[in-house]
Structures are given as structure tokens and as C-alpha cells.
Amino acid sequence: WELFSESAEGSQGAGNWKLHQVRVLFYNKEKVEFTVTGDTGTIDAATRNISVLGNVITRSENGYLFKTSSIYYNTKSRLIESPEQVEMRGPPEGNMGGMELKGRKMKVFVDQSKMIIQEKVSAEKPYREGKKFQILADAAEFSGKNNQATFTGAVRMNYDNMRLEGPEASFVYN
What is the pTM (predicted TM-score) of this model? Predict the structure, then answer.
């Protein structure tokens, strides 16, 4: 990863560095997979673990945008986590907007380029003629490598006058 900030307070050696106006680039196979920005942050000098707080936005290379209050990055596991409410906006499809989703937690597996939203996931996608597709699930997984989304758990989908329920729903999109 690479870290940028407008200012940093700390000392060489042990301890934490306090950061202001943070931007972190997370690399996977020599390219940027995820970019995280936020108001403040800390980096643990011993572990190199990072926290970013306040107006945190995580962007995936393929166009997903995640908003939350905080993220925590574990250098050893290469995992970005947010234990708080997360809002996601998917990449736009043509002239239609992308999917908008909410959930209670987020995990981003940097090496696998995989994003998972957990607990009370609700999503909505606008379609032509004012129709909307809605989905509720226990979890949702999005790939940073391809255009695929999988919803799991108690999945309920509504579109126009149609309702579907099941344990899993997978989508491949443009």
C-alpha cells in the first residue's frame, strides 16, 4: 500500500502516527485495486495497521464506491473492515444509475479483490419506465475482477409485480 496525507504527527520507532486528510492506495499484483480516503487516520508503527476515520470513501478499481464512518486495515491479513453502517453505489450501467445498497458491516479482501457487505443488506436498482428492482439479503458479495454480484441468506427480490425468494441470487451485469 501507499499512504498520503496533508500532515502527520508522530515519531520514528514505536507508537502511532496521526494523519490528516488521508488517502491510501491498496495494491494487488502491481496495480491499485482500492483507494481509501478520509478525514483522519492513524498508522501503528509496529504493525503498519491503518485506521481511517470520518467521511471514509473506498473505491474499487472497477467502479464500486463505499461510504462509511471508519475503516480498519490489517496489514498481515490484507483485509479492510468497517464495523459500521455502509452505503455502496455500484458502477453505472449505460445511462442508468448503478445499484445503491446499504448494510451494517463491510469486509474488503484486497488480494482476492472481493467486497462483502454483511447484515441487513438492502439494495435498489433503477430501471426504465420508473421501475425499480429491490433486493434484501443477509450478505452481498461483489467482485473487483468481473461484473458479478451474489446475494446470500434470506434473499427477497421485488421487481414490478414479481416477488422471488430463495437462499442465493447471483447476477452478471454489463
Answer: 0.91
Handedness of CA 104, 97, 170, 130 (dihedral sign): positive
Half-sphere exposure of 60 (CA within 13 A, CB side): 26
- Range 49-80 burial, b when 16+ CB lie within 10 A, else e: bbbbbeebbbebeeebebebbbbebeeeebeb
Is residue 174 classed exposed, middle or buried when 0-12, 13-18 and 19+ CB atoms within 10 A define those classes?
exposed
Give residue 137's Cα distance to chain centre.
17
Q: Rounded CA gap, 84 and 91, in Å? A: 22
Mind listing the pLDDT tens digit for each residue in 30-51?
687 899 999 999 999 889 999 9
